[in-house]
Design a protein that fits this description.
Cofactor: heme
Oligomer: single chain
Keywords: Heme, Iron, Metal-binding, Monooxygenase, Oxidoreductase, Signal
Mean pLDDT: 88
CATH class: Mainly Alpha
Shape: globular
Largest sheet: 5 strands, mixed
Low-confidence stretches: none
Radius of gyration: 23 Å
Protein name: Cytochrome P450
Helix content: 40-55%
GO molecular function, one term: oxidoreductase activity, acting on paired donors, with incorporation or reduction of molecular oxygen
Family: Belongs to the cytochrome P450 family.
CATH architecture: Orthogonal Bundle
CATH topology: Cytochrome p450
Number of domains: 1
Strand content: 5-15%
Length: about 475
């Protein structure tokens, strides 16, 4: 009887999802229409983003990538799905977000509704205000100086793993500005076990999150997820016990979340604080360090760009090329430097697979000159990688061409509205301005101080290592680095 029941249930689900489901008319692979389990291998190997890109090339702008999930590759869908009004304002976060935490426990990132997200974001806004960012400059300068000193030391010992060095910087800055403590990886000149634990935990969560009950089960068993969350608890305990200490900044991000900087707008419970810990650790370290790694990778393959960058910096910092450190000048006048960063964010999107929302009403999705209506309870997202590498949005989309951001009128096709490396609208990345501050300073000083080369074998190995773990992740990037002689 049990076997008959299971066979009948399987047949019923299959029939419904293929022939009767409201999304049955939307094209997509058969396996994806049937079950989210089909994504487990891709999520573990980090190939989801490339697979969805291939689906869009085969099926079009709107693809069914799950039993009730569709992906959209039309940039016009950004406002449709993530905007502040219309059906978008009534959307809730998708299952990816609910699967990464315990039921009814949320970080800023995975608050289900836009209204609750906006209320909670106010404490975060204070931590990333213009005034607060100004107090972080000294930390960024000091860590950048320590990083470049370590790179100079390592340069005489053979090839340097630039990706690892950038991780040191990102992790230490995140620690100081987020928790008021340094993890000491820049000073030690080696990757700590904490960094490895974070990377493995994020990979495990991303793999299992599309089958949410699996991630919930593994929280209570020995697993990378359980170890990662245990470490988050330890970091949070340390921060709470060191209330009011100001070793690195007058007010770190958790000073605002814990109400140490005046009235707390929304009191958070312990589990919510741990979720915000996770958000701070992942978003505050991985994305920035990976973006800088990609910029340096592309620069190593285009020496002419490096020469032009140095000319720009020499003009902006006459007599002080060795240490360009004025954040405002780098932001407002270093046009080629900013173009190099934007182009790396386009070509190597930090979050390549997009951000899920679940509709609560009917939604009309754009698909070129046509539209497709999806019902309530549909999981929708825009696919960042596909939009960034679509020749309808950017000429020669597979090439690293920073000048497209300086002289867009010279490009046959240039659609800056398709660029969405930090999300879109009011739910976009709150730390974007801080990330740019870090990237501009480190990259400017790196280019000013070092010559870099990457061998073809190392370049191929690096590109082959790039994977989608919700945030993009990579393997080592080994380079020959030499201090500049002039």
């Amino acid at each position: 009887m049990t076997l008959v029941f299971l066979l009948t249930l399987t047949l019923s689900i299959t029939t419904y999802r293929l022939l009767l489901h409201p999304l049955r008319h939307i094209p997509g692979p058969l396996s994806c229409k049937l079950t989210m389990w089909s994504w487990l291998p891709s999520d573990w190997t980090g190939t989801r983003a490339r697979h969805i890109q291939a689906m869009h090339r085969r099926y079009g702008d709107i693809v069914r990538i799950g039993p009730r999930e569709v992906s959209c590759a039309d940039p016009a869908a950004l406002s449709t799905i993530y905007g502040p009004s219309g059906p978008a304002a009534k959307c809730i976060r998708g299952p990816w977000y609910t699967g990464q935490s315990e039921p009814h426990v949320h970080s800023l990132q995975n608050e289900p509704t836009l209204a609750e997200h906006n209320r909670r974001r106010r404490d975060w806004d204070a931590a990333f205000s213009v005034r607060a960012l100004g107090t972080y400059k000294g930390n960024i300068r000091r860590n950048a100086g320590g990083l470049l000193g370590q790179i100079a030391r390592l340069a005489g010992q053979g090839k340097v793993d630039v990706r690892e060095c950038m991780m040191w910087f990102g992790f230490d800055v995140m620690g100081e500005l987020g928790f008021g403590r340094s993890f000491g990886t820049v000073e030690a000149g080696r990757t700590s076990e904490e960094v490895h634990l974070v990377e493995l935990g994020v990979r495990a969560i991303n793999t299992l999150i599309n089958v949410p009950y699996l991630s919930h089960i593994l929280r209570y068993l020995p697993s990378p997820i359980a170890r990662f969350e245990s470490w988050l608890d330890t970091a949070l305990d340390w921060r709470i016990s060191h209330h009011g200490e100001k070793d690195f900044v007058d007010a770190d991000v958790f000073a605002f979340l814990l109400g140490e900087q005046g009235k707390q707008r929304r009191k958070l419970n312990r589990l919510e604080l741990r979720q915000d810990c996770m958000l701070m650790v992942v978003a505050g370290s991985d994305t920035t360090s990976n973006a800088m790694t990609f910029v340096l990778y592309e620069l190593a393959r285009q020496p002419e760009l490096v020469r032009r960058l140095r000319e720009e910096l020499a003009e902006l910092f006459p007599g002080n090329l060795e240490k360009p450190d004025d954040f405002e000048i780098l932001r407002d006048q270093a046009h080629l430097l900013n173009a190099c960063i934007n182009e790396a964010l386009r070509l190597w999107a930090p979050v390549p697979s997009g951000l899920q929302r679940t509709t609560t009403t009917r939604m009309t999705l754009p698909s070129g000159r046509e539209t497709i209506v999806v019902p309530a309870d549909t999981v929708v997202s825009t696919h960042t990688l596909t939009m960034h590498l679509d020749e309808r949005n950017f000429s020669n989309p597979e090439l690293y061409l920073p000048d497209r951001w300086i002289e867009p009128e010279k490009q046959q096709t240039h659609n800056p509205r398709a660029l969405s490396p930090f999300g879109y609208g009011v739910t976009g990345c709150i730390g974007k301005n801080l990330a740019f501050m870090e990237m501009r300073l480190v990259l400017a000083q790196f280019v000013a101080r070092f010559d870099i080369e990457v061998e073809e074998a190392d370049a191929r190995a690096f590109e082959a290592s790039v994977r989608d773990q919700f945030v993009v992740a990579t393997g080592p990037l080994r380079m020959s680095i030499k201090p500049r002689k002039s």
